[in-house]
Amino acid sequence: MIRNIRIETMDQLMELIGEKTYRPELKRYRDLCIYRGECDSGFTLSTSLMRNCKSLSRQLEMPMLQNFTKYAVMEKPMIEGNVWQQLILGQHHGLPTRLLDWSFSPLMALHFSTAEQDLDRMTEHDSVVWRIDVHELHELLPDKYRKIMNKYHSTVFSVDMFSEACRSPEEYDRDMKDERMVVIEPPSIDRRIISQYSFFSVVPIEMTDIVGFLNENTQNTARYVIAKELRWQIRDFLDHQNITERVVYPGLDGISEWLGRHY
Questions:
Q1: Nearest residue to 210 via CA among 113, 101, 110
Q2: pLDDT along the chain (263 residues), means of 10
Q3: pTM, whole model, 2 decimals?
């Protein structure tokens, strides 16, 4: 079940930022929750493939990915022969894919929840931060996936681990149907992935209602609705913490976006 939590004060926001579970066996405050920010609370969870191709997602995904790879392999030869590397690189550069972006950092998710294209609309609507528990999701996985996690003493899949469990999107869809979902940590192919502390959920093609899946199959998923009256204060707080476009998008593009908003 998804918990809906409304944030109207900075004190409530601090609870979101600081939520970590104490684990006696580690004597540390650790969990494996990941976060996703949206600038409008009316937006649902959907992949760029769903939004771009709609009912034709199944038919168009692989031809689109094959054409991307044909042109991209000269710059990134490491993607040849590995469909998951191709998907990650495509997602990173704006190709519509079945991957959904998340971050290990709630501050990064809050940045995207205040990254309004038209800043005049910042106080017109609430924004949202989603939180999912990777441990909880991976407990739902078939045995062959969990055996590979145990083999490598890991709770998150690398691309190599994921390739060992599943060699194609078709095999993945057969394994998952609309009942399960894997989270992977991408390789550090550039500074943006590192800065954003990126993770991806790999959404099965049959899972057309991600929110419905989370509501039915998880207990730790949370949807934090950020009151519109608080959004500018959060934006100023993030700027003070150096969570800005120049950090989120390292390089001249990020600096330009940051300066454009500043002025």
A1: 101
A2: 97 90 81 95 97 96 96 89 95 96 97 93 97 96 96 94 96 97 93 94 98 97 98 97 95 94 90
A3: 0.95
